[in-house]
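Both lines are quoted verbatim for reference:

——
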Amino acid sequence: MSDTGGTQLDMRRVNANLRRLAGRAPDVAERAAKIASEAFIAEAQNNAPVKTGFLKDSDFNTAEGRGRRFGFGASYAAAVEANHPTKSGFLRRAILENSTRFIGEAIKRALADRGGAKR
């Protein structure tokens, strides 16, 4: 068999980098979840019906375990989400239509914030 001039892989360095990344993964995931949930709320606020502004301003975004719980706390938020004649689904649409983009961007930002992404 002839030598094709292939690349040599330094497995010690690869394993060290994997251990370093694995140690940071929970922090990065939590940060990415916060960033993504903020983006979902902002998008939903742009799509929410506005009469007084109370619904739009009733957003919440709290840590729950290693994830996030977010939404709108107005007593009528669920009814508007489900039944508004022109704006129903404002929160669901924000999530469904933007998940891939917002989560991808959030992961990149979270890694960059931790110094883990190549710029």
Remarks:
- Residues 26-113 form one domain.
- The longest helix spans residues 11-47.
